Amino acid sequence: MTHIILLAAGFLLIGVAAMFFLSLTAPRPATLGVHSGRLAEPPRTANCLSTQTDVRSFWMAPLEFTGSPAEAWTRLRHVVSEVPRTKVVTDNGSYMHVEVTSAVFRFTDDVEFLLEPDAGRIHFRSASRVGRSDLGTNRKRMQRIRDQFLKQHP
What we know:
- It is a single chain.
- By secondary structure, this protein is an alpha+beta fold.
- The protein has helices at 2-25, 69-81, 137-152; strands at residues 34-35, 38-39, 48-50, 63-64, 86-91, 95-101, 108-116, 121-128.
- β7 and β8 form a beta hairpin.
């Protein structure tokens, strides 16, 4: 019985080490950025969502605002800066790419925002670099960002 427990613990340790290694070596996706005025279509995995997809299970409504697009973007910057373990990679005033790192395994998620000033919308895409499922982490994060964005100015 002790051998089985030790074997199981060994496999668990190997699995944890493999997940940690994957999280450190996952490259930044080449599809990031704005292409023909849109963010990239999400991959067909359960660890991504977008405001610009027609696939209902991967869709979420964009952030909507009234007033100045510049003020809305400033508000978004503030909200994003409050998200734990977040690093802004790019921010040009109409497109922002941030990397969010998970607390335990150090997985990196890529979160992008795209300002659509004339429509009063900010589109976003949030995707995990590793795995096929994130147990709803991206959706929960984006909902918290939405809630904070709206709380600052309805």
